[in-house]
Sequence to fold (196 residues):
Amino acid sequence: INKWNEKGHLAFTKIIQMNNITNVLDSTDNIVYSYNNNNYVSHLIFYYWNSERGGWAENIKHENEYDKNLNNTKTTSFNWNEHKNEWVPNYKTEMTYDDKQNLTLSCMMNFDTISTNWINSSKQLYEFDSFSNKILFKYLSWNTSYSNWENSSKSIYYYADTANIAMELSFSFDSNSNVLGINGKTIYEFDDNMRQ
Fold:
């Protein structure tokens, strides 16, 4: 169930699911949305039904940050700590864009509550041609033992013209050979009107 604010933006979502025990529809979660001056979602909060307290309780919060071009540059997730009565960071994703507003980097980090430091988790890299077609995707994982990034997978994209993809090659990391080996190839075919 959704509700919109006076500006026509989604302001509230109620999630309803069937209770398998009582066979009655229960409201399991509520989501409240907040917006910045540019009408982009600044944060949203998930609430769950706390049967012990007999009311809705905070659960998860997502906060978004944007650059001057309104690209989402950071999303931070928090968990509610009932004992401390405060939001505790959980993980965050930081994004970088090129001059054409293409996403070139997405880096995810987890929050260490003991050291209160952000720890690298995974990284996704994207490269584009002059027509903003994605030509390369790389996924890397953080090795906590050696404190460095390790390749996990890669995809290379080839185009038939300025927009239509012709082939995709996929690679995955082989721990035995310690290299990225090809594990898939997809070829796209088109008719005379360049329709797949």
